Amino acid sequence: MKIEIWSDVMCPFCYIGKYNFEQALEKLPFKNKVDVEWKSFQLDPTLDSSKAMSTSAYFKEKKGFPESQARQMMEHVAQAGKSVGIDFDFGKALITNTFTAHKLLHLAKKYKKDSEMEEALFKAHFVDGKNIADIDSLVSIAEDLGIDRQEALQALNSENLDYEVNQDIQEAKNNGINSVPFFVLNGKYAVSGAQPVDVFENALNQTYQEESPFENLASDGSSCNADGCSS
C-alpha cells in the first residue's frame, strides 16, 4: 500500500501529523506492507533563503498578525505538540525558504530515508532552532543519517534535485492540494491535516482492506471518500 504525504518543513501541524500517522501505522499488523513517500510543498516560496527571521517577526511582517495574536497561536500549537511529545520552541525557530531543505529530503529518498530525514528536519527547525536553509546545517543533518558529506554538498549546491522538488509542488497544484499535511492513500483517498491517531488508523485499515480483502477481517465501520475519512 502506498502513502504519499505532502509536507513543508516549517509547518508545525505537519510535524504533529507525522507523529499521529506513525503512531497509527505502528498499531497495524500490515505496517511492513506500507510504503510511505514524503513529498515537497512550500507554504511560502517567496521567502529569501539567504535570510532568516524569528517566527514572531514572520507573523507580524509577512502575515500582518498583531503580536498578541501571533503569541496566542504559537502557544496553542506548542500545547498541541506537547500532547504528542513534541517540544516546539518557537522562540528559537527561524523562518526561511525551505526549498534547499526539500532537496535534502529528495536525496534521502535515494537511501529510503525520507521519513527519517523529514523527522530530522522538523526537529532541526522546531526544536533546535537551526537555519534549515543553511548548507552547513543541512550537511550535518545528512551526515547524522549516514549520507556522505560530499554527496550532500554536491546535491545542495547544484540544481540536480530541483526538478524533483518542483515536480512534487506542481503535482500538489494539479491535485488541488493547497494546505499541508496532506495524505494520499493508494492514490485513492485523502486525509488532510494533523488528524488524531484513530482517524489515520481507520483510514489505513479501510484502504488496506479494499486492496487485500481476503487477508483482513471485516471493516470496522470507517468510511472514506475523495474529501477524507471519518469513523
Written description of the protein model:
By secondary structure, the chain is of the alpha+beta class. It is 48% helix and 13% strand. It contains nine helices and eight strands. The protein has helices spanning 12-26, 55-61, 67-82, 99-109, 114-127, 135-144, 149-157, 162-174, 197-211, and strands at 2-7, 35-40, 53-54, 94-95, 182-185, 189-192, 223-225, 228-230. A four-stranded mixed sheet has the order 2-1-5-6, with helices on both faces. The longest helix has 16 residues, at 67-82. Residues 214-231 have low confidence and may be disordered.
- Work out the number of β strands: 8
Helix proportion: 40-55%
Report the uncertain regions: 214-231
Give helix and strand order, one letter per element, not per position: EHEEHHEHHHHHEEHEE
- Compute the average pLDDT: 92
| Sheet having the most strands | 4 strands, mixed
Question: What is the radius of gyration?
Answer: 18 Å
| Strand composition percent | 5-15%
The helix-and-strand class reads alpha+beta
Alpha plus pi helix count: 9
Arrangement of strands in the largest sheet: 2-1-5-6
Tell me, what's the shape?
A: globular
Beginning-to-end CA distance, first to last residue: 20 Å
